[in-house]
Design goal:
Distance between the termini: 34 Å
Order of helices and strands: HEHHHHHEEEEEEEEH
Structural class: alpha+beta
Number of domains: 2
Shape: globular
Number of helices: 7
Number of strands: 9
Length: 275
């Protein structure tokens, strides 16, 4: 429930046009199974309380990073669905434990490997490769509605921002240039209303939202953390304005304002290395 609350805290997005729903196929891909097998093995071999400590080589961490990239780049819904199913198994097994130590939660195993990736590659790289899509989009209009959060049995009032997709930097399996998408956003104290202006273009990170009951069809602004301890996307949520083909506010990437063409080249060379 806590994980769901953290997700719901942030903005929700869904596409209003042809959207493949972030699924690769109906069969769990080998890279998801391999990633979780490594996570399971790491949890078994890493128990500081009993003096156990598992270490990865540089090459092993690189392989883990490539698997992590594929999980979110190729099949983010399938990956989250697989982990949620593992979590349901974990909950059932935990209820049956009468004595002894309860096993690590599946998502904590994922976060443990994610921390290994961060150790080698840094925070920004780790967050970006774990974000399924980055789109360049022009903000057109907004309308208001409400959505039902089934897990919380409540309704949320949301702002629906309509964007025209101009270019897809990452996530071309899920988004297409020329399509429109509606970014449904619920402001809160951790992530107030994004600073966007009608008619202007932005680079927007996008990821998927999966309820434990199944895929809801929504995705949301990517959770680009400043640090491992910070769950907020930033105040306001991170969007990167593009004016006169210059992309701005690039401090998160460790860059100064630069041309969109140069940034695209940098982004692909830096963050799409596992494609």
């Amino acid at each position: 429930m806590k994980a769901l609350l953290n997700i719901v805290t942030f903005s929700l997005i869904f596409c209003s046009t042809s959207f493949p729903q972030f699924y690769a196929d109906s069969v769990t891909p080998d890279y998801i199974i391999e990633f979780m097998n490594i996570a399971d093995d790491f949890a078994k071999q890493n128990d500081p309380e009993n003096g156990k400590r598992k270490f990865f080589s540089e090459d092993e961490i690189e392989h883990i990073a490539e698997l992590y990239f594929k999980c979110y780049n190729d099949d983010p819904v399938g990956f989250q669905k697989f982990v949620y199913e593992k979590h349901q198994e974990w909950e059932k097994a935990s209820l049956e434990v009468t004595s002894g130590k309860i096993r690590m939660r599946p998502w904590l195993k994922v976060y443990a490997l994610k921390d290994m990736i961060r150790y080698k590659y840094g925070n920004t790289f780790t967050e970006v490769i774990g974000c399924p899509a980055f789109i360049r989009a022009r903000y057109d209009s907004v309308f208001h509605s409400s959505i039902r959060i089934s897990e919380l049995n409540t309704k949320w009032t949301v702002n629906n921002y309509i964007f025209h997709i101009e270019e897809v930097l990452k996530g071309d399996k899920f988004f297409k240039s020329g399509d429109h998408c509606t970014i449904t956003y619920s402001p809160n104290s951790e992530a107030p209303v994004p600073e966007i202006e009608k008619g202007k273009s932005y680079l927007i990170p996008i990821t998927v939202w999966l309820e434990s009951s199944g895929y809801s069809g929504e995705v949301y602004f990517g959770l680009l953390r400043e640090s491992y301890e910070n769950l907020a996307m930033g105040k306001p949520p991170k969007t990167f304005p593009i004016e006169n083909e210059i992309i701005k506010n690039l401090e998160y990437f460790g860059l100064k304002d630069r041309s969109w063409t140069d940034f695209k080249k940098y982004f692909k060379e830096r963050y799409l290395v596992f494609e």
